[in-house]
């Protein structure tokens, strides 16, 4: 308030010199609608000194809305409290809404109670939805029931917006019978109340009920809105129901709801999570208008479907389109960069985030940056970021320990594990066991596993932990111990432990052991191509070429095919290039294959091929 008083004095001096132009009420309302906070305190002071705040109740309401929409609820309440004249009910409603919509629910309840003590004013149909939202956020079912009773007292129990707020509250607190009673008791039901039922059930994970109410809504002849579509699409997205999503897509186009940006965004999200990247792209490219959520959804869809190069290309298009990324964009694009190890792109993205203040201490985003640097080979940069974090969560520790393990820095991983300030989980133990395995620290790894089996970490060994131990024993040449662990892990890990054991046998030259177990892997997983390839390789190592030919023949007859390999290369100044095994579609394929054959020849001539 001292700051406001000073600004008021400053504005008074300016007004006396006839320099400022008094803002019109319509201009103030435009600022509120546009969420433009810049200069709002100066504007507030000018309104005070000009007398407009005293003479126009609408100016006070618009000022409160300006602060609220700009996420400044404290300033909104200050404007309300410092009003020269007693605020009218519209201003009271705006102030309660400002607190409720900005997560100050307890303060909103206190202000509502102050309103109830005002003999000159009574809550109306705009007051109740705001206070019901606040009570819903507080999870206070007793107060919600009291407010529900007040609706009857004031004759507003059939008012559609208040009833919708009550329905939402009851559904979020899983008082389904109460919500349905409110809904069915209404004499008239419009699209707003139907949306409350569909979205309320969808948001609480009751997908069957959400779909039933949506179907009933259509039977009643209610025309859906964009909000309806986003609600029902969220159901099919959560259940990964691609076919139902396509049917809704056709309905969306037929009814013209595809003009809603939110509906198109939901369709992109649905197709992306169902690995329907082509369908998602068709929706995206057909949009007449896109917001940041559109770009985020499409980038996430590409990344989720494994098309990391496309995700990077979309990010570039987003910047060229003048759409500023947010933290969600960053957490979508950074994993794509990590997967193709495009360090230069990662550094440029990090610089952009810093320059635009997007990082801002976001733990989730910092973790994504650490993971990106680690997977791009810049482990020291990852550690610098880790140490600079204001506060690490468990994921931060896990990412950094796993990074050290992946880079063969077992001792660093072990030291970080021993210095953890958070209780480890299953992922932490996998990381540190992997680090011990790659770093040859067998005794340290065995001790951690022993403590895990004894329950000291509150975690029981799972498949991944057994696999780490088989790998550790195998690398150390302790094949018999590795075999015992693989057998012990069979119940939890199936044939995975034996696969790790076969690899260890091959590395140590124990090809007979490898052949014996490879045959067992095929018997356990006859449909998995990896087992057949492993058996074929084992016969090849042992020089049993007849058996090798027989295995390949069986693979052909059973239609078992090896998964095609794919890799990415980032070339400075020339972007990212993707390569698939056997593919010659690259424009410079002839020169690339000539170079590869040349390198292979040099390796052979140098005696580096067995």
Automatic annotation (TrEMBL):
Molecular-function GO term, any one: hydrolase activity
Pfam families, per database record: E_motif, PPR, PPR_2
SUPFAM superfamilies the UniProt entry points to: TPR-like (SSF48452)
EC number: 3.6.4.12
Record has Hydrolase as a keyword: yes
Coiled coil: none
GO biological process: RNA modification
Family annotation (InterPro entries): E_motif (IPR046848), PPR_At4g14850-like_plant (IPR046960), PPR_rpt (IPR002885), TPR-like_helical_dom_sf (IPR011990)
PPR repeats: 190-224, 291-325, 362-392, 393-427
Keywords, ordered alphabetically: Hydrolase, Repeat
Protein name: Pentatricopeptide repeat-containing protein
Organism: Apostasia shenzhenica
């Amino acid at each position: 308030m001292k700051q406001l008083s000073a600004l008021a004095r400053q504005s008074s001096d300016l007004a006396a010199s006839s320099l400022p132009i008094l803002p019109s009420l319509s201009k103030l309302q435009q600022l509120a609608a546009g969420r433009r906070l810049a200069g709002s305190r100066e504007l507030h002071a000018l309104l005070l000194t000009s007398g407009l705040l005293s003479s126009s109740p609408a100016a006070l309401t618009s000022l409160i809305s300006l602060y609220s929409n700009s996420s400044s609820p404290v300033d909104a309440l200050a404007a309300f409290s410092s009003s020269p004249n007693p605020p009218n009910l519209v201003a009271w409603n705006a102030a309660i809404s400002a607190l409720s919509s900005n997560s100050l629910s307890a303060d909103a309840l206190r202000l509502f109670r102050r309103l109830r003590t005002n003999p000159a004013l009574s809550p109306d149909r705009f007051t109740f939805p705001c206070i019901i939202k606040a009570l819903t956020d507080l999870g206070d079912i007793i107060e919600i029931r009291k407010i529900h009773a007040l609706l009857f007292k004031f004759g507003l129990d059939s008012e559609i917006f208040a009833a919708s707020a009550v329905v939402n509250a009851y559904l979020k607190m899983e008082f389904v019978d109460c919500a349905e009673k409110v809904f069915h008791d209404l004499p008239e039901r419009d699209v707003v109340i139907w949306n409350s039922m569909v979205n309320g059930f969808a948001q609480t994970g009751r997908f069957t009920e959400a779909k039933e109410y949506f179907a009933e809504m259509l039977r009643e002849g209610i025309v859906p809105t964009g909000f309806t579509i986003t609600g029902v699409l969220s159901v099919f997205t959560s259940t990964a129901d691609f076919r139902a999503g396509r049917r809704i897509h056709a309905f969306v186009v037929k009814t013209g709801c595809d003009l809603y940006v939110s509906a198109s965004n939901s369709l992109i999200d649905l197709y992306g999570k169902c690995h329907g990247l082509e369908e998602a792209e068709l929706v995206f490219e057909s949009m007449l208008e896109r917001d940041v959520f559109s770009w985020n959804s499409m980038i996430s869809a590409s990344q989720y479907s494994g098309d990391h190069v496309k995700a990077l290309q979309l990010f570039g298009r987003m910047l060229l389109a003048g759409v500023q990324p947010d933290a969600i964009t960053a957490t979508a694009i950074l994993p794509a960069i990590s997967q193709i190890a495009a360090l230069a792109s990662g550094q440029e993205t990090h610089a952009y985030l810093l320059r635009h203040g997007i990082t801002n201490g976001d733990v989730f985003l910092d973790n994504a940056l650490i993971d990106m640097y680690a997977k791009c080979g810049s482990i020291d940069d990852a550690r610098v970021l880790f140490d600079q974090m204001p506060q690490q969560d468990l994921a931060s520790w896990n990412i950094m320990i796993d990074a050290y393990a992946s880079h063969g820095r077992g001792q660093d991983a072990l030291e970080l594990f021993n210095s953890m300030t958070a209780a480890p989980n299953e992922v932490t133990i996998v990381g540190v066991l992997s680090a011990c395995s790659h770093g040859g620290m067998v005794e340290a790894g065995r001790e951690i596993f022993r403590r895990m089996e004894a329950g000291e970490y509150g975690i029981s060994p799972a498949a991944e932990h057994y696999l780490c131990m088989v790998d550790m024993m195998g690398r150390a040449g302790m094949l018999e111990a590795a075999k015992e662990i693989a057998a012990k892990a069979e119940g939890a890990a199936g044939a995975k432990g034996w696969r790790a054991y076969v690899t260890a046998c091959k590395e140590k030259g124990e090809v007979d052991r490898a052949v014996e177990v490879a045959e067992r892997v095929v018997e356990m997983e006859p449909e998995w191509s990896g087992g057949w390839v492993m058996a074929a390789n084992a016969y090849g190592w042992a020089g049993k070429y007849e058996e090798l030919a027989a295995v390949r023949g069986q693979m052909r007859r059973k239609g078992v095919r090896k998964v095609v390999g794919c890799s990415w290369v980032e070339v400075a100044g020339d972007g990212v290039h993707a390569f698939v095994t056997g593919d010659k579609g690259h424009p410079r394929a002839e020169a690339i294959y000539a170079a590869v054959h040349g390198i292979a020849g040099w390796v052979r001539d140098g005696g580096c091929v067995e």
